[in-house]
């Protein structure tokens, strides 16, 4: 089967649900492209410490492109215990018709990834490029850095249409992270670039230790960090919305670089 775009569509269906959690970083156009169905079914996956074949859990139908950019993967079945779907993908497209477990879209480098349900923590971890859409909710550390690492989201667009948990955008360096619902605590901690947009409410501790980048909050904020200072009101267009925002600069407790003799601050905008 081919789309008008010329992409080949491979449909994989979970036939045997894992008892523990299944690590399946092979569910990417990069891993599928140029392989036969038998070769794909022989790819390694891990449940706990044990290595199994992809075909022990999934069945496959359709066609596979010769290159990642020519390959689209549609994933059916309940993947709430399947980790690493779309991790490190560089091109092509993956659509998952359920929720997924941790590390979905981690270190993504290109292409398009759509999750029709929710994603667990650390999804979009260290994302470098591409488009990642979550139609449900996200847990904690969305678009953040790996524990102990200082490289969070680098580029691309990650959109969560529902709510998210805590610590999103930690050590973010680039790209755009959009949350259409609410977010919990610690938004953009240690942020060094990029843009975070929260269209709902946020709890508290937004932009702590932030040195560069931009955060927009459309809804209520329970507590403003003391390291932010009101600067001015500005008219902006943000993700299709035009209106007035109060601009704050910070985190003033951090060291900030200079550009053309001017100190560079992170900017936090609150919709008025």
Description:
By secondary structure, this protein is mainly β. It has a domain at 118-271. 3% of the residues lie in helices and 36% in strands. The chain has 2 helices and 19 strands. The chain has helices at residues 29-32, 37-41; strands at residues 8-14, 22-23, 44-47, 50-53, 58-62, 71-76, 82-83, 93-96, 109-115, 129-134, 157-160, 176-179, 192-198, 212-217, 229-238, 241-250, 258-259, 262-263, 266-271. Strands 5-1-6-8-9-10-11-12-13-14-19-16-15 form a 13-stranded mixed β-sheet. Strand 3 (44-47) and strand 4 (50-53) form a beta hairpin. 46% of the residues are buried.
Short description:
This protein is mainly beta and 272 residues long. It is built from 2 helices and 19 strands.
What's the mean pLDDT score?
Answer: 96
Query: What is the overall number of helices?
Result: 2
Which structural class do the helices and strands define?
Answer: mainly beta
Rg measurement, Å: 20 Å
Count of strand segments: 19
* Low-confidence runs of at least 5 consecutive residues: none
Q: H/E element string? A: EEHHEEEEEEEEEEEEEEEEE
Strand content: 35-45%
How do the helices and strands line up, and which of them pair or pack?
Elements: E1 8-14, E2 22-23, H1 29-32, H2 37-41, E3 44-47, E4 50-53, E5 58-62, E6 71-76, E7 82-83, E8 93-96, E9 109-115, E10 129-134, E11 157-160, E12 176-179, E13 192-198, E14 212-217, E15 229-238, E16 241-250, E17 258-259, E18 262-263, E19 266-271
Parallel strand pairs: 1-6, 2-7, 6-8, 8-9, 9-10, 10-11, 11-12, 12-13, 13-14, 14-19
Antiparallel strand pairs: 1-5, 2-3, 3-4, 15-16, 16-19, 17-18
């Amino acid at each position: 089967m081919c789309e008008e775009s010329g992409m080949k569509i491979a449909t994989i269906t979970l036939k045997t649900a894992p008892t523990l959690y299944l690590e399946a970083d092979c569910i990417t156009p990069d891993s599928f492209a140029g392989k036969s169905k038998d070769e794909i079914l022989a790819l390694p996956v891990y449940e706990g410490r044990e290595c199994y074949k992809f075909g022990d859990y999934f069945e496959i139908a359709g066609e596979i492109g010769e290159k990642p950019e020519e390959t689209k993967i549609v994933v059916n079945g309940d993947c709430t215990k399947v980790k690493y779907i779309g991790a490190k993908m560089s091109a092509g497209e993956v659509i998952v018709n359920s929720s997924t477990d941790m590390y979905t879209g981690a270190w993504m480098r290109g292409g398009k990834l759509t999750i029709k349900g929710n994603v667990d923590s650390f999804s979009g971890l260290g994302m470098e490029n591409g488009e990642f859409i979550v139609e449900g909710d996200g847990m904690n550390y969305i678009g953040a850095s790996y524990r102990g690492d200082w490289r969070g989201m680098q580029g691309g667009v990650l959109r969560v249409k529902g709510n998210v948990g805590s610590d999103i955008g930690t050590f973010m360096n680039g790209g755009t992270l959009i949350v259409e619902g609410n977010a919990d605590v610690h938004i953009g901690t240690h942020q060094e670039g990029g843009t975070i947009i929260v269209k709902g409410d946020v709890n508290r501790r937004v932009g702590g230790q932030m040195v560069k980048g931009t955060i927009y909050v459309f809804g209520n904020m329970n507590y403003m960090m003391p390291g932010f200072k009101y600067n001015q009101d500005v008219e902006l267009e943000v993700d299709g919305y035009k209106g007035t925002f109060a601009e704050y600069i910070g985190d003033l407790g951090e060291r900030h670089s200079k550009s053309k003799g001017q100190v560079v601050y992170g900017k936090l905008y609150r919709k008025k």
